[in-house]
Amino acid sequence: MNLAPERRAALDAALAADPDWQALLRHFDLSHGFSFVVLMVDSRENAELCREALAAHLAGSQRSEIQRIVPATPEEFRDLPNRLYYPAIESGARAIWIEAVVTEGDPAFEEWRKTWRATFARLNQLRNILQETIPCDLVFAGAPWIQVAIREAAPDLWSVRSAVTRVAPKAESAAGLQRELFPKEAGVSRAADAPDPEFALEMAQTLRGKPGQEVQLAVALIRAGAGFFERYRTQQSIAALEEAYSILESHAPNSREMANCASWLGRALQRGGEFKPAEEMLRRALRVNEELHGPD
Quick check: 64 and 107 in contact, CB under 8 A? Predict the structure, then answer.
């Protein structure tokens, strides 16, 4: 990836600080055998950044090889079921990484969207075969709209998903981070792109009671709370976020995770009509964010 050193360093730092990316790395640390991973990114640049960061994370482990498949055309993407039916798995392979990032503004978007749906309808029929013949992680990296396409076209395959993550590292200032923390369009639902709250709660359940995993548990609960918020399930959002907040108060009170949690909880409380607690939460988020990044 040909980037200026300053921009590359800023993007690497932003990715390293992304709690969703850190959660995905923990998945790779803990997983064994087949798993189905969906990674949503906003650009080809970010997909490549993630793949390189994953390769660096796996370096030195017994199985560290990432087999990369980058279909250049819809026709090549449609051939994936054939390639995965008899996969040529290299020795030491840790993941098969399939990358096809096509944004909605791309002239060929509609053709690619139809191709993703058709290809996953075929892969859905191969779910059991994929689980039996692929002894490593199967990662699909694409634009955020692929989540709905996969879920609708391949419900059986979607049911065995191991991780669904969206990351959007940006090289930006603390002021930009604060604008992201308090977006003006907060009242606009983005449910299609939001985390899957039920899946996030399942991930949280696997972390409960495990010493040293408290912050990771809180991150899963924040994802659940954000997902419930975007689906207007306000009380469930508040419950998940209040639990995450309580955990972080004890284990990471001045962290990026706390700033993120307090921001989401403030918005959820505000929507629920609890205006004074909402203001307190938003002020807490701002204070922590300023401690982490400095004031404007």
Answer: no
